[in-house]
Design a protein that fits this description.
306 residues; alpha/beta; FAD/NAD(P)-binding domain; 7-stranded mixed sheet; 5-stranded parallel sheet; 7 helices; 24% helix; 30% strand; binds NADPH dihydro-nicotinamide-adenine-dinucleotide phosphate; transmembrane
Length: 306
């Protein structure tokens, strides 16, 4: 099967590109991975979205965009892309459950995935007391004690979200300063259930018969190890671009972000574009993702009329 255009990734960048491509008559196929969009499902209330006086929730925004893209004629297939061949035309994309699909042009909008700490206990208990997504699992921690690891915007959002469920939330930050925006820090600091523990490096997720029971950390002040009691550990230490499936087919930077020509979404291969967080190591904001999705669709349309 051959498509005029495929968009890999069904987050805000991918769906924005899909709306623009569909409206231009380019009949895009959007490939939606099995996992939910990381950035959006972890951003429950987008209170700064321009024009929305009362904000909008991430999942609602994504759902609206999904329906809007379909309404304009985009097709959506669900499955994880595990390989692409960009060495000749048409490009080839291999999708779990569907096999090989060909396309004239490709827009990559695969976003990022939450990073893990790489400490013992973490992977084994992922989904069983260790989480990277408060909105996905906060309800399991009603009236329980939880830790949130990290000090950026993601950590603030996780802590704020968890405060609707958990009885006590402790933000564990490895340095003495938070990296989060002041607005989010202030919102979190207003919540009395949220406590702050700075200068601690996580060493191990402590587990027992009933699952996660805490976290072992080093205190930078005393140089001593400490055990923090908790029923759940939420890791919010940033994210990494989802580019493994590209396997050296496109130039990436040292962190794995796709390199695009400055001021455009064009990659090194004509007809292949990248938008959203997967090519944005600097801003990684929802509005930038939307803007670059629009840019990718326009760059792709120009490719056809060049
Ligand atoms: P950031 O990179 O901003 O912050 C990561 C945090 O995790 C830092 O506090 C960092 O500590 C800590 N950290 C990293 N590695 C480790 C480790 N191995 N052990 C312990 N701590 C660690 O990531 P975010 O995901 O918070 O944000 C990424 C981008 O997305 C930012 O641009 C942010 O503004 C944006 N974003 C915006 C949101 C919004 O506007 N609502 C919501 C979520 C994200 P240290 O400071 O010591 O390095």
């Amino acid at each position: 099967m051959e498509y005029k255009s495929i968009i890999i990734g069904a987050g805000l960048a991918g769906f924005t590109a899909a709306v623009y491509m569909a409206r231009a008559g380019l009949k895009p196929l959007v490939i939606k991975g099995q996992r939910p969009s990381y950035h959006l499902t972890t951003t429950m209330e987008i209170e700064y979205f321009p024009g929305f006086l009362h904000g909008i929730s991430g999942p609602d925004l994504l759902d609206n965009m999904f329906r809007q893209a379909e309404q304009f004629g985009a097709q959506v297939k669900i499955g994880d892309v595990y390989e692409v061949d960009l060495s000749k035309r048409p490009f080839k994309v291999w999708l779990e459950g569907w096999g090989e699909i060909k396309t004239e042009t490709l827009i990559i909008a695969t976003g990022t995935t939450a990073k893990l700490l790489g400490i013992p206990g973490e992977k084994d208990y992922l989904g069983l007391g260790v989480s990277t997504c408060a909105p996905c699992s906060a309800f399991l921690f009603r009236d329980k004690k939880v830790l949130v690891i990290g000090g950026g915007d993601s950590a603030m959002e996780e802590a704020i979200y968890l405060s609707h469920y958990a009885s006590e939330i402790t933000v564990v930050n490895r340095s003495d300063k938070l990296r989060a925006s002041l607005a989010l820090q202030e919102r979190a600091r207003e919540i009395r259930k949220i406590r702050w523990l700075m200068n601690r490096t996580p060493l191990e997720v402590i587990t027992g018969e009933k699952g996660v029971t805490g976290l072992r950390v080093t205190s930078h002040e005393s140089g001593q190890e400490e055990s923090l009691e908790a029923d759940g550990v939420f890791i919010a230490i940033g994210s990494k671009p989802n580019t493994e499936f590209l396997a050296k087919q496109l130039p990436l930077d040292e962190q794995g972000y796709i390199l695009v020509k400055p001021g455009t979404t064009e990659t090194d291969i004509p007809g292949v574009f990248a938008c959203g967080d997967v090519q944005d190591r600097r801003y990684r904001q929802i509005l930038n993702a939307i803007g670059s999705g629009c840019m990718a669709a326009l760059d792709c349309q120009r490719y056809y009329t060049r």
